[in-house]
Design brief:
- The protein is an alpha+beta fold.
- It has 10 helices and 19 strands.
- The strands form 5 sheets. It has a 6-stranded mixed sheet with strand order 1-2-7-3-8-17.
- Helix 2 runs antiparallel to helix 3, helix 4 packs across helix 10 and helix 8 crosses helix 10.
- The mean pLDDT is 96.
- The chain binds zinc ion.
- Zinc ion binds next to helix 4.
Length: 406
């Protein structure tokens, strides 16, 4: 039997452990906000230490912690990085769930719970992949670093951004293990759109609402502005796999104090998604042009726009060694070449690619488009968890090179 087959066989026998580990991770509530990743970090620390990895916990704030685990190879380089987040979004209205959101219930091939698909299942698959490699007696030619990070769902300040600031995110390639199964087929998310969140403010004049002619209604001005912004077309070269840029105008709106007062102030938010090659400045220019035009037509119109959150789009070459290795591993395990697909959102990969220059796959992991991540009854296919444990193992073996343990 080849070393690869040894590893795959080993992982197959670890399936019950993989399911139990995912359940344990789900049962450690790590809802963000407010954010508390201590329980999940402890479970991973125990699990990864058991297989001989060197584990360190990096505390980034009260109750905020990041796990760094290293599987030593024959040499220190090349280095392969796995990044996955330990926080989850809130469970929402519990009465809409048919199972306990933090119970880790299994029904047939589905494992339910908040974070099952986004992305505690992936964390368990990574841990199982590394355990399979070790137990099969395989030694890699370089190190594998596993970062199980806090705070992805809110802004990464306590998580990936913290690990980068501490100089811990050093690697030659890697995977951000966000879900990438579409219609039951494993794909590679080789690019992800960026986001540019903008706050617009309109200024009016307060007056008694019984005589509106004396005032300027900032909310009505905002209405016309939002309608105009929602019709904006952002220029971008069409992308091979990503959807075109989008503007959602007015996802949040605030204004007015009392029924009988003409409101003098209103603010609203826009969610703009951008493609590689687009900049924050380009988006701001478009919005400002709209404001200027409206001001020309209506001298009482006064508005301002500011960016309050920005992450550029991310993309790694199709011929990047990690993409090729992941593709070869998928073919070996699942029997087909994975397609390159688009990411729907932004994730921690942007910081690793942009700020550290590490070619990471922006999304490659269990969890499919029917998993209802962030929704009720979130779930993950157990079959996919096992497949990804195998695929992760082979991807690191193909990327780093490997030999039998002496
Ligand atoms: Zn996620």
């Amino acid at each position: 039997m080849s070393l690869e087959e040894n590893v795959l066989g080993r992982i197959e026998t670890l399936k019950p452990n993989l399911v139990r580990l995912t359940q344990k991770l789900i049962r450690e509530k790590s809802v963000n906000p407010p954010g508390n990743e201590v329980g999940v970090a402890r479970v991973l620390e125990t699990e990864l230490s058991k297989i001989g990895m060197k584990v360190a916990l990096h505390h980034s704030g009260p109750n905020r912690v990041n796990v760094e685990a290293v599987l030593l190879g024959f040499r220190r380089h090349p280095r392969f990085l796995f990044n996955g987040h330990t926080d989850v979004v809130p469970e929402g209205d519990v009465s809409k769930w048919t199972v306990d959101p933090f119970g880790g219930v299994v029904k047939g091939d589905l494992l339910y719970g908040r974070g099952s698909s986004d992305m505690k299942g992936a964390l368990a698959s990574i841990a199982t992949a590394l355990r399979g490699i070790t137990e099969a007696g395989v030694k890699l030619n370089g190190d594998v670093i596993f970062h199980a990070v806090a705070d992805e769902e809110v802004g990464a300040v306590y998580g990936t951004k913290y690990m980068i600031a501490k100089g811990l995110a050093r690697a030659d390639m890697g995977i951000v293990a966000e879900s990438s199964v579409f219609g039951g087929k494993i794909a590679i998310r080789q690019a992800a759109r960026g986001n540019c969140w903008i706050r617009v403010k309109t200024f009016g004049k307060a007056a008694h609402a019984s005589d509106p002619t004396h005032g300027v209604n900032a909310i009505l001005k905002m209405s016309t502005l939002l309608l105009a912004l929602s019709r904006l077309k952002l220029q971008a070269k069409p992308h091979k796999i990503l959807p075109p840029p989008t503007i959602s105008a007015g996802t949040v709106i605030k204004g007015g104090t009392k029924t009988n007062i003409i409101p003098e102030y209103c603010e609203a938010e826009l969610d703009v998604r951008i493609l590689p090659g687009m900049s924050k400045e380009q988006v701001v220019r478009k919005v400002t042009q709209t404001i200027d035009l409206m001001n020309k037509r209506d001298p009482q119109f006064s508005a301002k726009a500011e960016v309050f959150s920005y992450a550029p789009a991310v993309e790694i070459p199709e011929t990047s060694p990690v993409v090729l290795a992941a593709s070869k591993a998928t073919e070996k395990v699942a029997g087909y070449r994975p397609k390159l697909r688009a990411g729907h959102g932004t994730n921690d990969s942007v910081y690793l690619v942009r700020d550290c220059g590490i070619p990471v796959i922006p999304g490659f992991g269990p969890g499919n488009d029917l998993s209802n991540a962030h929704g009720t009854d979130e779930n993950v296919n157990i079959t996919d968890l096992v497949k990804f444990a195998k695929i992760y193992a082979l991807t690191t073996m193909y990327s780093l090179g490997f030999e039998a343990e002496p």
